[in-house]
Inverse folding.
């Protein structure tokens, strides 16, 4: 079977959630071989316009680009040459509404918007897109009555966008803070965190366990994952000394903090970045 970008991206993330630094060091040869093969794969799916296809013969969209960047940064195989032209391609995906589409010219969509803006963050080009228009589009995706987010303009609320939309706010907050925006809150993200928690906890819990898109829908792993990810974003603001938490309901509702770019527990992310960051970047020539 040929490798798929989504699987290649999520495999190291899963390892990160399960592993400690000591466990990484127990398999140095496997780690080295994996990183070399990873570089070969990324080079094989890189497109001339800077985008990445999902697999050989597959489509190119901003999901593949985010997955490529996330795994490359997390495992320290990133090079400027490998991602040459990528930032320019991602910026073309931003629409007149302000969100990002899957490819240039497509409609703005929550999942693509997270992948697009997170890609710019990983490329350290987070201030290069139209931030004002992006923020306006994002804030208008939170539903006034339900409290959750819709994925596109004039669509229904959907629980998974608790993360795909909600997870972009911490990324924007950081860049606006760095730019010295004096109107920026030091206590809240720029959406109604309590309303999102209410939607998730009251409307999206299945009586048999797991979480659902909206009342009346069946539970599934996908929505359970991204509803929980959105819930922790809504619960925790910032980090360090300025970090605050607003937990709706019982203190038992509190979830661990995640790294908003990788959607992995913060401690595990820091540990993985520290371990792989100490390793040399593999130098692999592309095999035609």
């Amino acid at each position: 079977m040929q490798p798929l970008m989504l699987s290649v991206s999520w495999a190291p993330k899963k390892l990160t959630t399960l592993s400690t630094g000591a466990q990484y060091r127990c398999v140095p040869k496997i780690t080295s071989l994996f990183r070399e093969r990873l570089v070969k794969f990324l080079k094989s799916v890189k497109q001339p316009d800077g985008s990445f296809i999902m697999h050989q013969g597959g489509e190119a969209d901003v999901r593949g680009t985010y997955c490529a960047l996330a795994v490359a940064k997390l495992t320290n195989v990133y090079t400027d040459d490998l991602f040459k032209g990528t930032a320019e391609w991602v910026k073309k995906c931003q629409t007149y509404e302000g969100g990002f589409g899957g490819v240039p010219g497509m409609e703005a969509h929550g999942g693509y918007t997270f992948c697009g803006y997170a890609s710019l963050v990983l490329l350290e080009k987070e201030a290069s897109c139209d931030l004002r228009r992006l923020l306006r589009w994002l804030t208008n995706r939170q539903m006034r009555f339900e409290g959750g987010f819709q994925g596109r303009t004039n669509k229904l609320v959907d629980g998974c966008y608790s993360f795909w939309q909600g997870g972009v706010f911490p990324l924007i907050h950081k860049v606006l803070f760095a730019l010295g925006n004096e109107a920026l809150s030091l206590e809240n993200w720029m959406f109604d965190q309590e309303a999102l928690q209410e939607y998730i906890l009251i409307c999206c819990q299945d009586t048999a366990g797991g979480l659902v898109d909206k009342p009346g829908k069946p539970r599934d792993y996908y929505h359970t994952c991204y509803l929980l990810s959105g819930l922790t974003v809504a619960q925790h603001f910032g980090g360090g000394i300025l970090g605050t938490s607003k937990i709706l309901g019982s203190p038992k509702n509190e979830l661990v903090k995640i790294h908003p770019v990788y959607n992995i527990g913060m401690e595990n992310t820091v540990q993985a970045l520290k371990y792989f960051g100490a390793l040399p970047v593999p130098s692999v020539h592309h095999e035609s």
